[in-house]
Amino acid sequence: VIHGDLSARNILLTECLTAKVSDFGLSRKMYSYTHYTKNGDDPLPWRWLALESLKNLQFSSASDAWSFGIFLWEIFTLCEQPYPGVPSLTNNFIINLEEGLRPTFPQFATSDMYVMMFVGTHKHVVSLVGCCTAKLRDGILFIVLEYCVNGSLERHMKLNRPNFQNLVQKGKILGNKKPVVLEPEDENPNYMKAIPNSNVCMQKRQFNNLQLINWSIEVAKGMEFLSSKRVIHGDLSARNVLLTEHIEAKISDFGLSRKMYSYTHYTKDGEEPLPWRWLALECLKNLQFSTASDVWSFGILLFEICTLGEQPYPGVSSLTNNFIINLEEGLRPAFPLFATSDIYNIMSSCWDENPSRRPTFSRLVLTIEEARAACNKFPKSSNPRVSIALVTLGSNFHHG
Fold first, then answer.
1. What gap in Å lies between CA 361 and CA 191, rounded to an integer?
2. For residue 287, is it left (φ>0), alpha (ψ between -120 and 50) or beta?
3. What domain of life does the native source organism fall in (predicted)?
4. Is-contact 400 339, C-beta < 8 A?
5. Is 184 within 8 Å of 192 (Cβ atoms)?
6. Domain presence at residue 259
7. With contact defined as beta carbons under 8 Å apart, do 166 and 388 qualify?
8. CB of 232 within 8 A of CB of 397?
9. Cβ–Cβ under 8 Å, residues 210 and 172
């Protein structure tokens, strides 16, 4: 059956607000003809019709699919009229359709909301609780997300640097040696130095290297889930990982952070801000995003974790052609001083210039879990949430 006039006006709602398709074309005679233009004796709902229907009066399941797309547009604009600037069907309108004219993107049908509705729930992905459209006509859409009480991973690591217990030196585990903590110098809060173990380790948010590895595994598992759903995040970073009450990591935003977060992290390409410090080479050169480019960003996230939130490429102030050329020639973030060699090898594998040679997220989960198992020499602690601080060695980037 070909409907031929699929639109919001031909969808009826039951007592329970369940939608039912009606009319099968009968609405052409029942509904106001202001929606149509006449072609012979047959009025046509031209704003809803596919190109082939307008040109040759060809109706099919494919033309109904076109109309269904217009119907979806009506839903997410609260039944605004398609093509509001076009008063009537003309040859110019048909020509414009042939050249790519389509209804404008619904202002409130954000791709992020669609993605989160599609993805569903996972232990390490922030869930969409719901949305409120009560003020949609005023340009306001409220999205309700799962609450993560400890905020972003980036902020948490920076605030808790003084409570960070280092158990790694020159890429190797300290073993039975005394761990050290990091303390900011008063004159330069960005400078970290190792000091003998002290009472600062007894503060509330005490953590060590093992916690950093745990966060890395949790994010990798979340990204493994998203990639299985064919979802590309596009902005994976420590600022877009949130922490629950139990300090477990959850991936957030799915690109929403591009609009919510400070633009100091981005450069604009046309209308789209880009988090260039986290992007893969092919993203910067050709705006090609994929699961493999998310893997590159995950490697940068590992660097952030292993430096307690330091900025990647701190000596580079803006995106330039020289920066891209340097990436092509092997520029990568440097070995963090307190990362294990295994963890740095994993993050380096994420930065392969060839996307097809980068590991999958499933593989990353396995390799990071293996790296955690190799850390059984970490000193035992009575605090199950203790984890480690990692700082950078000299310059935060090098040529590989």
1. 33
2. left
3. Eukaryota
4. no
5. yes
6. yes
7. yes
8. no
9. no
Tell me the C-alpha distance between 337 and 391, whole Å.
5
Do 56 and 124 belong together in one domain?
A: no
CA distance 182 to 159: 12
pTM of the entire predicted model: 0.66
User: Average pLDDT of the chain?
Assistant: 78
Q: How many residues in total does the chain contain?
A: 400
| Residue 254, in any domain of the structure | yes
Number of domains comprising the chain: 3
Closest CA to 9 of 89, 93, 70: 70
Which one of 235, 253, 294, 352 is the catalytic residue?
235
C-alpha of 272 from chain center: 14
Per-residue pLDDT of 172-230, as tens digits, reads: 776 655 555 554 444 333 333 333 443 333 335 688 989 999 999 999 999 999 999 88
**Residue 356, token pair as written in the block:** 């097809």
In a domain, 338, yes or no: yes
Same domain, 125 and 244: no
The half-sphere exposure of 287 on its side-chain side, counting CA atoms within 13 A, is 8
- In terms of domains, do 307 and 221 share one? yes
Are 212 and 307 in contact, with CB atoms under 8 Å apart? no
Write out the residue range of the structural domain in which residue 115 sits: 111-145
Q: Are residues 89 and 137 in the same domain?
A: no
Looking at 98, 128, 156, which one is the last position of a domain?
Answer: 98
Same domain for 116 and 196, yes or no, is no
**What's the Cα-to-Cα distance from 75 to each of 108, 137, 374, rounded to whole Å?**
10, 12, 54
